[in-house]
Amino acid sequence: MHGILIEGDNNKWYESGAVGDVTIRHNVFHNVGFEGGAKYPLLAAPLLTSSQRMGEGQYHRNIRFVDNTIESFNGLIVQAKSVSGLVIENNEVKFSADYPAGDSFPAIDLNYCDDVSIRGNQVDGFGRKLDVKVSADTTNVIMEANPRFQTE
After folding, report:
1. Of the candidates 6, 36, 58, 78, which lies 20 to 30 Å from 64 by C-alpha distance?
2. What torsion do the CA atoms of 32, 152, 63, 147 make, to the nearest 10 degrees?
3. Is this structure's pTM higher than 0.85?
4. For each successive 10 residues of the chain (152 residues), what is the average pLDDT?
5. How many helices and strands (H and E) does the chain possess?
6. CA-CA distance, 139 to 8, in Å (whole number)?
């Protein structure tokens, strides 16, 4: 599973809604998603039924993922959908050789997000740059001082 799941369940259990202000700081995420697939230290996305569609405006707001250490064999960091005010800053991503290296998913995957700051994140031990995927409906993304990241 994901390290932290911020969902908003509109599909099965209906036990949570949107978040308005969350900070995830000073954590260590160790080999999240070792069973394979796109399992991120942070996934923030509403869970919708097949008939539901995104409305106007983003579902979640003001999520800060800052000053964390991610020990990772795959380089995954954050996947976000329908978030306004997403901050991914000053995290350190360290390569872990505990599992076979994987690289088929973007390190940061943004869909229908607005007002995103990706700054000062450091990568150590990966033999490649980490990909940042920004969908066409994602707006106002600032990327600064992330020397080992590249946009897809």
Report:
1. 36
2. 80
3. yes
4. 86 78 98 85 84 78 98 96 97 94 89 97 95 97 96 88
5. 0, 15
6. 22
Cβ(135)–Cβ(104) under 8 Å? no
Read off the tokens for 12: 């099965």
For 34: left if phi > 0, alpha if psi spans -120 to 50, otherwise beta; the answer is alpha
Q: How many residues does the chain have?
A: 152
Question: How far are the Cα atoms of 60, 87, 116, 140 from residue 84, in angstroms, in the given order?
Answer: 6, 9, 7, 10
CB < 8 Å & 24+ apart, contacts of 51-54: 52/10, 52/11, 54/82, 54/112
User: What's the pLDDT at 53?
Assistant: 66
